[in-house]
Structure to design on (475 residues):
């Protein structure tokens, strides 16, 4: 990790917020000033604002035990002006197109108000400037007032409202603020309290009555078991009857609960969080526990709908090829082997989960995810052959030509003259303007067991080797 001293030296005036998973965050002095944290700011009940010997905040925020402090700090940050939001969104969509993405499902806009904070993406859609198809879920916004939000949303929109580029997908991945587990594997597993069941059941019952699809964040089998008990009780009164719903994450789900999910018509959306947090998981729960976290092969055998994703952009990289490599190799980005061969996916299986599998979760499996008649004209020509490239090189795959709706939205290499122009990056201080775009660092493993970290846009030949066996990079 970079040090706070290095961040302050690199950006003495521009606020910088670096999020490390959902475990911690680093803020430079300008960011501390922007969010208003001083020696008089107390740490909240569910987090720590680290302070030095003189009582001044250092810039390190710790999620103890969950990410409430990290979310709250992001909410205090300065907001870009409307025109800059339009600009930065277009550039970010192009970055996703660079990786070959043509469509995403947004699990929920944490701390985003509906419909106010959706005006930018709506405006780009109306102007025919979206280069990515987006199905979005509405996230809980007012703790204790979730039912009020739901009833208001029922009047404003409905699932499927929009067009083939931007459409509302349902509710989630948080339903009520209190009924929620978290995935900070540096902290003990949270206990699900039955005290919040009444409000949660009321919310789910209302959602099912209105036939809105929903998704629920649930990391641990203990949480999933608790929620399934409630769902089955609701189903006896208000049948789910084909309603599309699913769990997000489900790292430790048991075979029995996979069967229960399938019986209720649900699915499981998995993400590559353990590619980044696998070492933390093993340290807390042991090597044996991680071997089936998640139990990929059992999900395939049982036949429950499964979609694969990244959990981007806050908790993990948005690079889909990192996620695919994790499914195939069973290794973390640091090189730790998590899964035995019997709990890994073939390249074809992983790709199916990522494409047609994920299309089920937005109810679009009839028109997305395959190159076939009557499917949308979305495709990517890749830089390398995914099926034969060395496993360790899969994360470096990108697109050389991406089409959405039959239109070119990104082009590189021999197709570069076809790349559609974008407006200049704004605001002027944006690092994207300086370094030529966002890039995923390349990690190359040496024969000695050490790693090289290659930052392509920070000196193409600037290599630093870390101590063999250490998964922490200093650059």
């Amino acid at each position: 990790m970079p040090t706070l001293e290095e961040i302050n030296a690199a950006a003495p005036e521009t606020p910088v917020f670096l999020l490390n998973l959902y475990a911690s965050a680093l803020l430079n002095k300008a960011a501390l000033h922007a969010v208003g944290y001083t020696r008089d700011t107390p740490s909240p009940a569910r987090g720590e604002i680290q302070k030095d010997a003189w009582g001044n905040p250092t810039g390190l925020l710790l999620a103890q035990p969950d990410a409430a402090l990290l979310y709250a700090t992001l909410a205090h940050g300065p907001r870009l002006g409307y025109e800059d939001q339009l600009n930065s969104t277009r550039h970010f969509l192009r970055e996703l197109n660079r990786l070959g993405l043509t469509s995403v499902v947004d699990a929920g806009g944490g701390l985003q108000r509906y419909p106010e904070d959706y005006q930018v993406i709506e405006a780009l859609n109306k102007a025919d400037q979206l280069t990515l198809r987006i199905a979005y879920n509405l996230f809980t916004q007012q703790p204790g007032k979730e039912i009020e939000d739901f009833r208001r949303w029922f009047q404003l929109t409905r699932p499927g409202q929009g067009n083939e580029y931007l459409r509302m997908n349902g509710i989630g991945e948080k339903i009520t603020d209190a009924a929620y587990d978290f995935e900070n594997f540096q902290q003990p597993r949270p206990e699900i309290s039955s005290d919040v069941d009444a409000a949660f059941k009321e919310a789910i019952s209302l959602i099912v009555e209105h036939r809105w699809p929903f998704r629920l964040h649930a990391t641990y089998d203990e949480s999933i078991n608790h929620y399934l008990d409630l769902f089955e009780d609701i189903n006896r009164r208000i049948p789910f009857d084909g309603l599309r719903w699913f769990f997000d994450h489900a790292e430790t789900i048991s075979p029995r609960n996979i069967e229960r999910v399938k019986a209720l018509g649900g699915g499981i959306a998995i993400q590559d969080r353990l590619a980044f947090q696998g070492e933390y998981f093993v340290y807390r729960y042991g090597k044996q526990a991680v071997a089936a976290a998640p139990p990929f092969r059992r999900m395939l055998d049982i036949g429950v709908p499964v979609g694969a994703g990244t959990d981007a952009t806050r908790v993990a990289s948005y690079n889909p090829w990192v996620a695919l490599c994790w499914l195939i190799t069973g290794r973390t980005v640091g090189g730790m082997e998590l899964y035995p061969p019997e709990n890994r996916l073939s390249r074809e299986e992983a790709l199916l989960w990522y494409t047609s599998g994920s299309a089920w979760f937005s109810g679009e499996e009839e028109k997305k995810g395959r190159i076939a008649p009557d499917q949308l004209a979305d495709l990517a020509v890749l830089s390398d052959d995914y099926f034969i490239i060395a496993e360790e090189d899969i994360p470096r795959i990108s697109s050389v030509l991406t089409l959405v709706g039959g239109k070119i939205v990104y082009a590189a290499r021999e197709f570069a003259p076809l790349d559609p122009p974008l407006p200049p990056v704004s605001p002027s201080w944006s690092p994207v303007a300086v370094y030529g775009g966002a890039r995923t660092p390349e990690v190359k493993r040496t024969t000695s067991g050490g790693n090289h970290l290659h930052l392509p846009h920070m000196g193409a030949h600037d290599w630093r080797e870390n101590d063999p066996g250490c998964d922490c990079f200093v650059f």
